């Protein structure tokens, strides 16, 4: 199993439905073999961007290039793209192996060649035992694995994933996410992964593109997006953040850069803790003075957190660099 | 649990004198019987005339005999009527499926807003009485015929009424089938994630027709089968339009022959009735099996 490594270029792509602009002059370049996640809230245009690359939508302006070739006006079935949809796109009338063979059948491969390749892919996705089942006999996670195998069977130039995990439950989600990452790295296939789940986006990506109202707010490696967000929107949307006004400037601080200490004279009161394993998230609310109503989010090791039960009055201390500070003074 | 416990403050003896069983018990039992009453009534309403017809057809004078069915072999007119009706049925099914399925699929895929328009159009025949439809068709054909020999309208009128394959009946039957078959096909398409399937197929390289043929049609077999059987039942049962247009189909033959050989007409009618029921049963069962398949 080999895959072609192709570049993908969005060149000033805009899309409007009527008067509503969904994508505004989007430019984005995927290097060959790269996995980019496109992250954003619902309605930010991420799915539209993906569907334009797939060929299901025609951009209002701009071009899309795959491996240097302009495909803007090419029909979806001529683009040689592999795509995994949110859910339920397997053909219910075909068995698992027939689903995987579908694209090969369209490409008129011989039966033996088709069987060999489909078998190989099912093996890779850990589904060899399910070849003769029908989609409705599989769990959601298994169905998405079949969808992945089906997309990869045609040796696509690009792999598109449209929120492939959002219909699955948490454990399966992580499993399939890791599997996608493993296959992508093994095959070296250029991949665009669209999601609204920031943890998912950060975990899997080479680079993350954060999209907001049709514009890319930031395009960077996951750790950069998290630690050094380029805008208020990114700071708020990716990860948890505490917003404070320090020296007259709006300052965004990640939980691990904020430490809470018991302080009888503190302006904040601990409201709750959530244990997440390695770290414990502590929430506190300002109860007096200028701090009234302000939310603090801090993360600490369990031993430190145990000293701060709900109701404890605390004060905060900046123990790291703030993720983002506004240029201008806060109003 | 609490529901099943007898209510203590209303002792059985207080209202009804029945001593052994609690009052509620016999009441529920009576209610259970009452629930079956409508079903029994409908079953009786449907089966008694049919059973009587069967008895009349195969038990002449109290002894079993299939003599009434001898018309099947001896009456050339019946044979012709059956062949003609089968031909009409076949063409009706082809035209119906070929026109309706692509239209409904296209509306679902590309113009969901037009769905209501299509639905209203397809439901219209339901509110037009068959005799009104027949009258309209007759008026049109007569106008064609009145244009005189050799004219195009006359030729078309003649062609449509050709006794071997009266296309005018095919057209009428397709229209009469629309309300029910549209509903069936529309519902069939709604139960499958059509857009996801079509896009999934396209991205794998299939064109529109390949997609429809390979993955859309196979997933709506149940509703198409229903349409086929419904059209068959309608073609073998429709009398008004066929009689008005003076076309010798099976129902028209039945009507004609009932004045000379009543037993034969009943015998054939019973046979048709049972065949239609069997077809409908197959359609319903196969649709149900497919629905189970999809869950």
Biggest sheet character of chain A: 6 strands, mixed
Write down the CATH class of the largest domain in chain B: Mainly Alpha
Mean pLDDT of chain B: 84
**Secondary-structure element order of chain A, N to C:** EEEHEEEHHHEHEHEEHHEEEEEEHEE
Rg calculated over all Cα atoms of chain B: 27 Å
> What structural category characterises the helix and strand content of chain B?
mainly alpha
Backbone shape of chain B: globular
Please report the two chains with the greatest interface, counting residues with C-beta closer than 8 angstroms to the partner's C-beta.
A-B, 31 and 21 residues
Shape category of chain A = globular
The portion of residues forming beta strands of chain A comes to 25-35%
What CATH architecture of the largest domain in chain B would you give?
Orthogonal Bundle
The quaternary state of the protein chains shown equals: heterodimer
- Average pLDDT, all residues of chain A: 89
Strand content of chain B: under 5%
Q: What is the fold-level CATH name, i.e. the topology of the largest domain in chain B?
A: MetI-like fold
Strand order of the largest sheet of chain A: 6-7-8-3-9-10
Instruction: Give the number of DSSP strands of chain A.
Output: 18
